[in-house]
C-alpha cells in the first residue's frame, strides 16, 4: 500500500507502472500490444468514427488516463463527471486543511486576548518570543534525529533480513508482524513501557537483587526507548521495500568481479537502498517533531517536546497566537526536512511509493 | 543475525504481551502475578464513563471512515481523469494531510473552527426567529472532520494504487461491448477495487479509533476512548487500564489483519 506519495521524477502513465521494468523478457509479451494505444483490428483508434454503435457518428474517445471510459461523451460532460468525483475531497481539503493553515498563519501574527485566545493584530512579537521555548525546540531537535537514527540502526538489519535472507515462505508473516504494531494504538504501546519502566516494573525487580532506587521513567533514555519502539515499523517498511526491489543480479555481478560480501554491501546494496533509508529517516523525524504522547508519558514533565509546549499553550495557558507561531515554525522545519530528503532520495534513484500495509 | 532479528521481534511484542498478561492479574502488582482473574475486565466494562467513551469512539471512527471511503474512492477515480497539473495539486494536498504531524492538524483545525464559529454564531443569533438559536461548537463533528482528512488521503492513496495496477484491456473490452460507463464501473471496475476500498475503510477506522492527539485538540467537551485512557493513565497505572488496553489492542489487531488479508488478496490476484 502506498502511503507516502513523492513526486515521480519523470511522468509515466499510471497504468503501466513497473510493467516493463519487471518483465524479464526484452520483448513485450503477447497481449500487451493492445495497451500501447496502437490501433488494433478490433478496436477503433481514438477519434475514429465507429459504425453501428450507440455513439455512431460522434467522436469516439478512448480514455487512457481515465478509468471510467466515457465513449462518445463530449468533453464538457466528461469534465463535469470528473469535477463531481473530486468535488467532495477537494472541499474537504480546502475547508479542513488549507483554510486551517491560513487561519493558523493569521493567528501567528496576532496578539493574545486578555482572557486568552486571539485578538486581531499584525505583529512579529510571537515569533520574537520563540527563544523562550528554546528548551522544547532543543529537546525536539536533538532527540527526534537521534531517535530516528537509533531506529535506523535497528531497522536496517531487520529490513535486510526480511528482503534478502528470510525464507520466502515465511516472509509475508514476518513482514506482517512488523507492520501490525504500527497500526495498533501508540497510546497503549507507550503505556506498556510506562508500565515496564515504572517503579513497580523493572526498578522493582532490580531492588530485589540489591539495586535500590533505580529511576528509569522520566529520563531522556526512556523517551528514546519509546521512540525506537513506537517508530521502528515505520522505519523498517520503506527500507524493506527498497531492498526488495533490488536486482539480485547486481549482487552476483559484484561477487563475480571479485568483491567481498562486505564490499558488495557497501558498494552496491547500501547505495541502492538509500532512497528507502532517506524516506524512513525523513518520515520518522517529521512525525517525531510533532510527537506528544511519548515525551508526555515516558518523559514526565522533564523531557518535553514542541508537541508538549503546544498542548500547554493551547489547552492550558490559552496563548493561541504564540502557539500558532510555534506550530508555523514547526511546519516550516518539516517542509525543509522533506525537501532535503526528497532531493537526496531522487538524486540516488526515483522512488515513489512506500508500502506500509 | 538471526539472534538479532529474533530479539527485535521480542522487543516489538514482549511489552504488549506483558500488558495483556497483567490485565488478568488478580492483584494490583505490575511485576508479580498473583493469580488469574478477569475481575478487571468486569470493572472496566462496568465503568459508565468508559463505555460512553467507547461508544463515542466507535461512532466517530465509523462515520469518518465511511465518509473517507466514499469520498476518497471518488477522488481516486476522478484524479485519474484530471489534467496532470491539477492531479499534482491533489497529490500534494493529500501528501500534506498525511505527513503533517497530528499535533499541527489538531491545532490548525481548532484555530480555524473557533474563528469560523466566532463569526457564524452571532450571525445565527441575529437571524434566528426563536429564543434559542443553535450554536455551533467543537464536538463530534470537528473530530469526524479532522479524522476524515487523514483517512480520506489514506483511502485515496490505497485505491489509486489499486487502479494503477489494473489492466485497462478489460475496461476497453466492456466499452467495446456497448456497456455504458456506469455499467462498466459497476460490473468491471468496482468489483476489482472493492477489496482496496474495504482495506482503506478498515485502516481509516483503526486510525480514528486509535488517534489521541488530534481528538485531544478538537474534541471540545466530548471524550473519546484514547482521551479517556490518557486521562486514566495520568491518574495512575492500574490493571483496569491494562484490561482496557487489551480490548483496544484486540480490536485494532482484528481490523488491521482483515485489512492486510484484503490487500494481499488483491496482490495475488493481480499477480504481483
From TrEMBL, chain B:
Parts of the chain that traverse the membrane: 54-77, 89-120, 140-159, 187-206, 212-231, 243-263
Family: Belongs to the binding-protein-dependent transport system permease family. CysTW subfamily.
Protein name, as recorded: ABC transporter permease
Membrane topology classification: Multi-pass membrane protein
PROSITE patterns named in the record: ABC_TM1 (PS50928)
CDD domains to which the protein is assigned, alphabetical: TM_PBP2
Every ABC transmembrane type-1 domain range: 54-259
Keyword annotations of the record: Cell membrane, Membrane, Transmembrane, Transmembrane helix, Transport
GO biological process: transmembrane transport
Domain of life: Bacteria
Cell compartment(s), UniProt: Cell membrane
Record-linked Gene3D superfamilies: MetI-like
One GO cellular component term: plasma membrane
Pfam entry (one): BPD_transp_1
Keyword Repressor: no
Species, as recorded: Ensifer adhaerens
Main location: membrane
